């Protein structure tokens, strides 16, 4: 694009980004526990406003965290080297993944994707720490990047993207990307004055931005794990606020007295008063005086209402109720697995969507690095760490039966052992390979020794070859 065209893009699309940013900022507040304030009554005191702050609980951030902690990419599989063989720990796209610190960076991408409903990652030409050509992979928050698609429900690549970085209070640094280059600009706060700075051509033929979507539908909508549940979380905060107000002002008995004159100023000066300490007793010399107490307000109704709302949030968000309530008493491994069944199904769906985006990003990275075979390998896919809750004993028993009864190769089952990572599996495979080589060399050595002492064995070894 020409510099004038890029400037015009910023002026046209910056207002659209600001509208989207306002929506995402509300989600960001709820995701980070800075819930919208409950509407305070007119003339609310500082004390009451403090209770409003105390009523906020980061429920929706916990919903996001519960899913995010089940999503960790731990490897890449490809048909190039066999159905279950990885590219290798130091070559191909897996090396690019590791070199870009994606084992940790993926967490931020997943969390943004879950919270906002979508997120982005970029792949641009660069070099590694040793100056070797390498794709540079980075996650980008949707609060900063605005992507334009011809068809947001179907298109793999955006037409162009705009990224806005605040540069002080009243200006932005803007980065525009399309299929040919990256363009840098400076803009004032409202986008009416935009200055072109420079361009850098990447020549990839596609806008080097991959979109991650939480739940993309056929209309291009991408709801996240926060916005749909804000009304429920607000309801819980309101119940907590009502309980705190009742607890603060009316959770104890209040005494009342009838038929007694209020002490005069002179009597009060002489120590006669109606305010009581814990060990004081009020007496009256009048037969008309009556004493009583207002009962304390019950808090049980508020607590029950909150528990009901929390259970509703757990149900509609497919979050295990014990993750929200913390109630886990005498729960065995099987019962815990059953309690997490809905979460596992939800997590599996999210992994499918995020996995496709990771695959797309790594194919683009391979193209940048000149590995066209990997760039065109649509069968390659990332693998996910098994985070399901199972006891080690029951898992080992089930895997042992699969190996003996179904004749599944043992090495193919290692990755299904609870808590085992791809690195562990790779190390075990290398150890098994070394053990097999040692056994083979031992057999060859034994055969050679036998050949020297037994003419019949020597003749047989000469016919078949010692290594057969």
Integer average pLDDT: 84
Estimated helix fraction:
40-55%
Rg (CA only): 34 Å
Number of strands: 12
The major sheet is characterized as: 5 strands, antiparallel
Number of domains: 2
The secondary-structure element order is HHHEHHEEEEEEEEHEHEHHHHHEHHH
Distance between the termini: 66 Å
- How large is the share of residues in beta strands? 15-25%
Look at the helices and sheets and give the structural class. Answer: alpha+beta
Give me the side-by-side strand order of the main sheet: 4-5-6-7-8
The outline comes out as flat
Which residue ranges are poorly predicted, with pLDDT under 50 across at least 5 consecutive positions? 82-89, 464-468
Number of helices: 15
Could you list some keywords that capture this structure?
468 residues; 2 domains; 3-stranded antiparallel β-sheet; 15 helices; 12 strands; alpha+beta; 5-stranded antiparallel β-sheet
What can you see in these coordinates?
The chain is an alpha+beta fold and about 475 residues long. It has 2 domains: about 325 residues, no CATH class; about 45 residues, no CATH class. The strands form 4 sheets. The protein has a 5-stranded antiparallel beta sheet, covered by helices on one side. It has a 3-stranded antiparallel beta sheet with strand order 3-2-9. The relative contact order is 0.12.
Which helices and strands, and how do they pair?
Blueprint: H1 3-31, H2 46-54, H3 59-68, E1 73-77, H4 92-99, H5 102-116, E2 118-127, E3 133-140, E4 145-148, E5 160-166, E6 171-177, E7 181-188, E8 194-201, E9 209-213, H6 230-250, E10 254-258, H7 265-269, E11 290-294, H8 300-316, H9 321-325, H10 333-339, H11 341-368, H12 372-375, E12 381-384, H13 392-405, H14 422-453, H15 455-464
Antiparallel strand pairs: 1-12, 2-3, 2-9, 4-5, 5-6, 6-7, 7-8, 10-11
